[in-house]
């Protein structure tokens, strides 16, 4: 298992204290002040068990997403919801749209399901070809995709998701969509698959990326599929969401100032960083709609490039272990202008 | 599923704001100040993913328990470790020593294992009869017990655990011991099953009870069984312990002042509360070695008694849904002198 976040701790244990972590895709604005204040004010809450039904938290998530709280399930990070969903499915085989986040495969395998991969092609800029997918799906009962996709940054439009989920519905198949990064998409509220209200869709979300707090562990699922929610509730472990994560959801989803500031940053920076990277020779940059960018190295291996960048005090994600990517690919987070400039400089130096 | 902690939220939603919760067994001293300070100082840690290997945390737990950190596995509350252990076992059937905490059965069933119960008898004061257990064990490959046991408060001596685990080892069977409450036992360091270093033993611990923070979600397992640890690591979800829980473990296990204060409180209060309860007519009180007391009502049903106590603004645990207990049993937490006095008064009033 190659976990992002793991490398940075290993590097620190090896003495690399001040490394700039471009391997993990976290909002550089940092945790909202509103959350810190809420923790201070409500600190003694940890002396009680969390509400096992998480009514206040699910209500806040429901309001944020304009969906009844009955359709919301919360978990200890998106990973708990992912593993629980896969465990709760009564299917034999799933198809993962790849290259993508490796945990889908692991969650399916831990749950005893078979896995096939559907290949997004580099020559199609890693866009999803629905017709080809439907041709290849055969005995797979579930399609798993990440939207926008990690690590390609590609976003599938609501129209295409509508078409795909409708076709899957006819075939009595399900669609699992990881929308962990969707809030980095402009006007995402009008583009989320939740709007389709289709029963065969399950949506995974996280507070990790957008609200800059991977340490707090809060994820949730949205679905109109009552049956799967029932099964998931029956199989889940009690009190899996800790008190601070509960508080984070209630407070931060209402912090409009932070949300607006983040949107202003990402809309500007994703364009600027792409344009600047695109000027560098010997690399190919893939246009991203999320807060990270996939880069193909044209004259260097990813592991060598990563090592050279560590010497420059920058950690990038070597993507060679993603299914269907080879040792030419790396992924960069998008951070603030000053840091992005530093990364551009160092990449220019290293790939020259 | 009947979860303690759940009732209190339901009662609050129904308008019972100031109810005294004697249904959940949490250290009344509250969270240590040292932890609150550590959270403030390290707040920005939540902007990073936790260390997926949790080296610092496992080291702290190892030092606290005088066991190498390689023998420590950490989880999102004791529940994650419990469910993960049961999922990782390659067995068909387990025997649960009961009455006891209901989640063992649920964890085993979610993992697809069969369950049998071994009955602790009221006429034996719910003590464990090892000879009878070994006679009944037959095709069960695992014995599950809680020590000290919830809700009976009975503690099994290290000598008896040694004898039991040795016999089970001969039969190639395992022993799972939940020691969530062991720190409330006087000189527990000399009485924990960890001292036996036997490979067929797995010990579950929690920071919930002793350190008064069920909201923080931190549990751990101790074992010399390398194989089960390997399987558990392979099946676990990444980053399941959040940043604050990680911090709590590192800080609080070293807070000797808090530990000593808690020991002084529980040693005095468990004796006093038992003596006072014992003076009340129409109830039978079971001597407890933990921070809660099992009570048998001699002229009242548990659900009626519970309702009457809620009217007196005290919530007790109705134990009628514990396997092998009937509707005569309730459980009381032990809190500070002032509150314990109030509870004594109200019980006297209600059972008169």
UniProtKB/TrEMBL annotation, chains A, B:
<dbReference type="GO" id="GO:0009236">
    <property type="term" value="P:cobalamin biosynthetic process"/>
</dbReference>
<dbReference type="GO" id="GO:0048472">
    <property type="term" value="F:threonine-phosphate decarboxylase activity"/>
</dbReference>
<keyword id="KW-0456">Lyase</keyword>
<protein>
    <recommendedName>
        <fullName>threonine-phosphate decarboxylase</fullName>
        <ecNumber>4.1.1.81</ecNumber>
    </recommendedName>
</protein>
<comment type="pathway">
    <text>Cofactor biosynthesis; adenosylcobalamin biosynthesis.</text>
</comment>
<comment type="function">
    <text>Decarboxylates L-threonine-O-3-phosphate to yield (R)-1-amino-2-propanol O-2-phosphate, the precursor for the linkage between the nucleotide loop and the corrin ring in cobalamin.</text>
</comment>
<feature type="domain" description="Aminotransferase class I/classII large">
    <location>
        <begin position="18"/>
        <end position="347"/>
    </location>
</feature>
<dbReference type="Pfam" id="PF00155">
    <property type="entry name" value="Aminotran_1_2"/>
</dbReference>
<dbReference type="GO" id="GO:0030170">
    <property type="term" value="F:pyridoxal phosphate binding"/>
</dbReference>
<keyword id="KW-0169">Cobalamin biosynthesis</keyword>
<keyword id="KW-0663">Pyridoxal phosphate</keyword>
<dbReference type="InterPro" id="IPR015422">
    <property type="entry name" value="PyrdxlP-dep_Trfase_small"/>
</dbReference>
<dbReference type="InterPro" id="IPR015424">
    <property type="entry name" value="PyrdxlP-dep_Trfase"/>
</dbReference>
<dbReference type="InterPro" id="IPR015421">
    <property type="entry name" value="PyrdxlP-dep_Trfase_major"/>
</dbReference>
<dbReference type="InterPro" id="IPR005860">
    <property type="entry name" value="CobD"/>
</dbReference>
<dbReference type="InterPro" id="IPR004839">
    <property type="entry name" value="Aminotransferase_I/II_large"/>
</dbReference>
């Amino acid at each position: 298992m190659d976990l992002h976040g793991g490398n940075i701790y290993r590097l620190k244990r090896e003495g690399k204290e001040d490394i700039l972590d471009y391997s993990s895709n976290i909002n550089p604005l940092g945790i909202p002040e509103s959350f810190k204040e809420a923790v201070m004010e409500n600190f003694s809450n940890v002396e009680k068990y969390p509400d096992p039904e998480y009514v206040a938290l699910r209500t806040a998530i429901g309001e944020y997403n304009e969906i009844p709280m009955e359709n919301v399930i919360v978990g200890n990070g998106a990973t708990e919801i992912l593993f629980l969903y896969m465990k709760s499915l009564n299917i034999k085989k799933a198809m993962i749209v790849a290259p993508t986040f490796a945990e889908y495969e692991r969650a399916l395998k831990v749950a005893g399901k078979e896995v096939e991969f559907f290949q997004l092609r580099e020559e199609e800029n890693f866009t999803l070809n629905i017709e080809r997918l439907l041709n290849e799906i055969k005995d797979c009962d579930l399609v798993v995709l990440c939207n926008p996709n990690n690590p390609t940054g590609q976003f599938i439009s609501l129209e295409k998701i509508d078409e795909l989920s409708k076709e899957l519905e006819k075939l009595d198949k399900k669609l699992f969509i990881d929308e962990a990064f969707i809030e980095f998409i402009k006007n995402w509220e009008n583009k989320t698959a939740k709007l389709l209200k289709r029963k065969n869709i399950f949506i995974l979300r996280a507070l990790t990326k957008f609200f800059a707090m991977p340490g707090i562990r809060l994820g949730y699922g949205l679905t109109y599929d009552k049956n799967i929610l029932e099964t998931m509730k029956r199989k889940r472990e009690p009190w899996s969401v800790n008190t601070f994560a509960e508080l984070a959801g209630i407070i931060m989803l209402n912090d409009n100032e932070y949300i607006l500031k983040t949107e202003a940053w990402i809309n500007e920076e994703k364009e600027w960083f792409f344009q600047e990277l695109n000027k560098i020779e010997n690399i190919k940059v893939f246009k991203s709609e999320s807060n990270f960018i996939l880069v193909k190295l044209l004259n260097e291996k990813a592991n060598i490039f990563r090592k050279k960048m560590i010497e420059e005090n920058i950690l990038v994600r070597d993507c060679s272990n993603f299914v269907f990517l080879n040792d030419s690919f790396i992924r960069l987070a998008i951070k603030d202008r000053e840091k992005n400039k530093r990364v551009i400089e160092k990449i220019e130096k290293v790939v020259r």
